[in-house]
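Example S7 (structure tokens).
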């Protein structure tokens, strides 16, 4: 491969996929769910596969529209978490053990738990940026994610709970890339469809 295209070769030697890490898609991925996406892994097991949520694909739907008691608070966005289980609402949060039956992900992030507690917390006017909601999730079977990583579809990186909870679109992808150093800096400015330029 020539030096000209070497900038698109991914180096994943330093961070392995595991619960709590993020996957950053390569710039040419042409997929409705995963193009220019950042995915938080909430489960990862070599035998049973992986589960995660796309963090930066907001929908035109709000949590407030679906649950009584939340109508009077500022709108809480819902994100497209992935192509699986799109009829179910999921959430991550930073509230820790305040939410019974929650699962630690790592780096101060938690997955799932007692939704009634979450709803009560939000209805009292507490900061909505402590919880992030998703319709659907992203799933990989045994060895599937590892194969995609070896094919240079994803850069694996560490998560930052404050960045993960922000309600950002493509800027989230660009910010995640910026933390990886100069090697990936050009990705953020590369056109989605270079053949049209």
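Recovered sequence:
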């Amino acid at each position: 491969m020539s030096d000209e295209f070497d900038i698109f070769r991914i180096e994943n030697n330093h961070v392995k996929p595991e619960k709590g890490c993020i996957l950053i898609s390569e710039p040419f991925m042409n997929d409705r769910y995963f193009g220019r996406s950042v995915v938080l892994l909430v489960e990862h097991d070599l035998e049973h596969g992986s589960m995660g949520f796309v963090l930066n694909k907001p929908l035109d739907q709000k949590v407030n529209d679906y649950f009584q008691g939340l109508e009077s608070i500022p709108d809480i966005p819902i994100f497209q978490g992935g192509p699986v289980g799109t009829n179910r609402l999921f959430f991550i949060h930073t509230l820790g053990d305040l939410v019974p039956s929650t699962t630690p992900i790592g780096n101060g992030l938690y997955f799932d738990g007692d939704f009634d507690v979450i709803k009560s917390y939000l209805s009292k006017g507490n900061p909505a940026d402590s919880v992030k909601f998703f319709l659907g999730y992203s799933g990989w079977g045994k060895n599937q994610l590892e194969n995609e990583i070896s094919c240079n579809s994803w850069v694996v990186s560490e998560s930052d709970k404050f960045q993960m909870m922000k309600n950002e679109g493509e800027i989230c992808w660009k910010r995640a890339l910026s933390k990886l150093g100069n090697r990936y800096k050009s990705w953020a400015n590369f056109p989605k469809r270079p053949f049209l330029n």
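Notes on this example. The mean pLDDT is 88.
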